[in-house]
Fold this protein.
Amino acid sequence: MAEVTLIEGIRQAMDEELARDERVFIVGEDVGPRGGVFRATEGLYEKYGGSRVVDSPLAELSIVGMGIGAALYGLRPICEIQFADFIHPAFNQIVNEAAKMCYRSNGAWTVPMVIRAPYGGGIGGGLYHSQSVEAFFTHVPGLKVVVPSNPRDAKGLLKSAVRDPNPVIYFEPKKGYRLIKGELPEEDDLLVPIGQASISRQGKDLSVFAYGMMHYYTLQAAEIVAEEGIDVEVVDLRTLLPIDEQTILKSVEKTGKALIVYEGNLTGGYGAEISAILAEKAFVSLDAPIRRLAGPDVPAAPFSHPLQDWFMLDVSKIAAGIRSMAEY
Amino acid sequence: MVNRTKSKRVAGELMDKDTMLDLYHEMVLVRRLEEAFETLYQEGKIGGFLHLYIGQEAVGSGVIGARQPQDRVITAYRDHGIAISCGIDPKSIVAELFGKEAGTSKGRGGSMHLGNTDLNFWGGHAIVGAHMPLATGMAMADKYRGSDAVTICLFGDGATNGGYFHEALNLSMVWDLPILWVCENNQYGMGTAVERASAVTEIRQKAEGYGMPNERVDGMDILKVYEATSKNLDLVRKNGPFFLELMTYRFRGHSIGDPERYREKEEIDMWRKDDPIGIFRKHLLSTNGLTDAVLDNIEAKAQSEIEEAIKFAEASADPSLDSLFDYVYVD
Ligand SMILES: Cc1ncc(C[n+]2csc(CCOP(=O)(O)OP(=O)(O)O)c2C)c(N)n1
Ligand SMILES: [Mg+2]
């Protein structure tokens, strides 16, 4: 087994899927010779050529819209949006076209495509290069929304996403691209199923639900509080839509407490949905009020470092949240 | 820097000698500022994303140098030079990039989001193309109020490939809005050359498609930029939209850390020979009876202003943490 970064997992997934299936192609701004702004497509243009690793004009609406059309016609596009903050010009194409196509055609027209977008703050990007936008899309049946938190899942989930017959939005924790490292098994065809959360740490005192970058921090926080005698169960949600209710409910039935950690704004964020599910279906198991630890309700992460740090959740804030929950 | 809002330019007039010296100073100031940012970034004193204006100074100084005080300016994220030309103090620009309280937006925005209402500078905007519809609204408001202000909207070549651009151009023509569209064609959108991303390589032809009068001008020569802007601003005031394409080149990467695999060193060297500051300097020396000493003096002054701005920014306070929740709404 070799230790690789999260972004390397993503790159390998695309490399293998391009090699496996000639219907697969990548399209986006500077994904070709430049290898993408974050270098996720590094080397793929050289290997597969400009007709399969396609530089597009600066036009997100068309990157996605064109992807939908190509998918309808049997290709398997992987559309790259440079930053999740830039996905909004394509919102209509995603929500009104990609998500509704199967439903409106009684299943006759399908959209097997992946839209990759790096999300999240903590890299000094400021207002328009730091946003977490997953909640806009988890409100839309017909889409699948996936967020990996480690190299193995990053690879296995992306390969599954490419093969999924539905539109999958794949949000990548950009701060973790090179920070998060992990072992990648040398499996021929590593697939991680979409739609399943994973218990990344077994525990009995309380459950913490997280995904992406926040999951990475949560695992560290769990180790810190473990030394203080708090035994945390960490659930990596991995797929936000469709939701793996069973794993979520089972964990809370065991621990009796739930803390949900996410980076996006608190109000109307993804944690609200997990919270509602628990309130509706696990009420009798709960020993404490459900809590959300999330980004503050301000329009975007400010640029200034002290303000950005104040805005962002981190290991110590999550550890504090766990302690206060454990005390309840 | 020149306080452009006090400019007394007479419509259609060519640059007088004082204006030339002001603008020479301004271009050098922008150059020194950007060089300082490059160093500060490499030293880890500023972070985030940094897009430098080096090579394009004649565009910002020439276009904005020709505006009247009532004319509004709005641009994309490569905005440090534009901010200087609009009259923003380098101190508050450096402070902004340091994320300090004394910055143009108290450290909230950073490099790409400078702005100042009093100077009629409506910002750098980080989402490519998204400011162009805003420009139509500003121009619409001016027309609505019967003001004779023009909105000057600057954007890159890459931005003309997105839908925002086309909707905004069309609307400005249909409603006859007082807008000067200024395309800074530096021939690349990030790593993508114009001919790989745009169906027409002469961007002005896109304006042609909307029946909009247009012109393509050398953007490395400030005299040409100034003259074209000044003439066309007057046309816009009378007749509605005009599209000005300025041919320029960025001497640095798209942003700091760009490996620049998409262009050859020879190409960069070729363009560097047309350094806009060098071109202007040559002109000043040959036709205006100025001496090297006068111009060197101006350069030294610019250098010390930037040094002062950095000292100021370094000594300024961080924004208070509570301010995170300020300005989400107005009361
Ligand atoms: C909607 C959107 N898509 C992508 C980006 C990322 N991006 C920033 S600048 C840029 C290239 C812009 O090129 P151009 O308009 O020519 O301006 P230049 O950088 O040359 O000044 C890209 C792709 C963005 N900021 N916003
Ligand atoms: Mg450009």
Notes: Residues A 29, 58, 60, 82, 86, 89; B 78, 126-128, 156-159, 186, 188-190, 254 surround thiamine diphosphate (ligand 1) (CB under 6 Å). The CA atoms of residues 21 and 298 of chain B lie 8 Å apart.
